[in-house]
Amino acid sequence: MQLSYLSEPSVLYNLQYRYSQDMIYTKAGPVLVAVNPFKKVALYGNEYIKAYRNKTMDSPHVYAIADSALREMKSDEVNQSIIISGESGAGKTETAKIAMQYLASLGGGSGIEYEILQTNPILEAFGNAKTLRNDNSSRFGKLIEIHFSTTGRICGAMIQTFLLEKSRVVQCAVGERSYHIFYQLCAGAPTTLREKLNLKKVDEYKYLKQSCCYSIAGVDDAEMFRAVTEAMNIVHISKEDQDNVFAMVSAVLWLGDVSFTIIDNENHVEITVEEAAETVSRLLGCSIEDLNLVLSKRHMKVNNENIVQKLTLTQATDTRDALAKALYASLFEWLVEQINKSLSVGKRRTGRSISILDIYGFESFDKNSFEQFCINYANERLQQHFNRHLFKLEQEEYVEDGIDWAKVEFEDNQDCLNLFEKKPLGLLSLLDEESTFPNATDLTFANKLKQHLDTNSCFRGERGKAFTVRHYAGEVGV
Fold first, then answer.
1. 95 assigned to a ligand binding site
2. What is the pLDDT of residues 182-212, one digit of tens each?
3. pTM of the predicted model, to two decimals?
4. Which Gene3D superfamilies match (predicted)?
């Protein structure tokens, strides 16, 4: 369909009409617009793959985008990228999986393509969670680089991950869940593993029960756990390594239940030696004494002298949660590393590849943290890339070629990027500077921002320690 008049209302009406007819894909120049149907639609499978491969179907589709990338990679001998962007819950991860399935179908034959597809259950279990907007929200960014041989067959892949939301390990909002793997392990672990890890019910763990949400409608966590272990087998993660992975997952859960006993009038603490502390120390392979040393004391070096400082209850609790986040983040990185070893191209690499970027969508909640700060900055960068290639470079080319055309106005987000990136007085530089001061607080940081950034149209200081950033997709209060 070609629109006679290009305007915002006509575009929105067209998208709405097509959506009502289950036509969820619309082409806008080189861009494919996908509207999440939030239901199963009969647009996928071998018949559709065959139709787009043979060019007997040309309606807008993710398959068509993937097919175009594959053909151009072969004909131009240039690496290709498929960038998927959109707000949280827009369907980016599913779109990435659909593109991967098409490439695996056309470039398969060696068996490695099946391993690549089986990375999804693992990464989703350890990196996705239920949020208020999305039952399977990616809480990390992912770039998967799929490599092809000279004959156009998939010969390997490499995955890079970004910005895992570590804070979700220790806290999440009411109605949300932490990472899927916690619930899957508790629901699906066989008896021997359950006893070995001393697993409890999900509603008995402090880290999980604070959100009062333990299940997802239509999802069987026990069955998903079996799918995860099967996928781990396929990507050659050994049974011993799998057991160690689940031991770390259990240790993180039990860490949240470690409590402290106040030992003096200055509110200093030691860990309470009970089931939680004993289980954590056993799963981590350390002594109770070592665990107590890590959680209740701080080690510093002052003038070449080692100093041990006792921690208060608040400090020890923060240290415990920091350890849980660090353990989980390290586990996630290790899993990605093992997957990459399994998918390694090695000597088969020819230099031709198709990369698929699936990164967090723009986010704005009632309470926004450093994660949203980073996520939305990354999305501003993606938006500028989009603006540059769709508007700026195209229009500059028209001018150079002397083409008669009507200039297209678009909202440039350079001011917002300057707000983040400008040196020495951008958000990131000021945050780095403030972090070096021992007595820095949220309030001192906010006051510094208000002092230096009030002239930027994308910044607004609020009362107390709050401030607002005006992004291309809307305002976000921090």
1. no
2. 999 999 999 999 999 999 999 999 999 999 9
3. 0.90
4. 1.10.10.820, 1.20.58.530, Kinesin motor domain (3.40.850.10), Myosin VI head, motor domain, U50 subdomain (1.20.120.720)
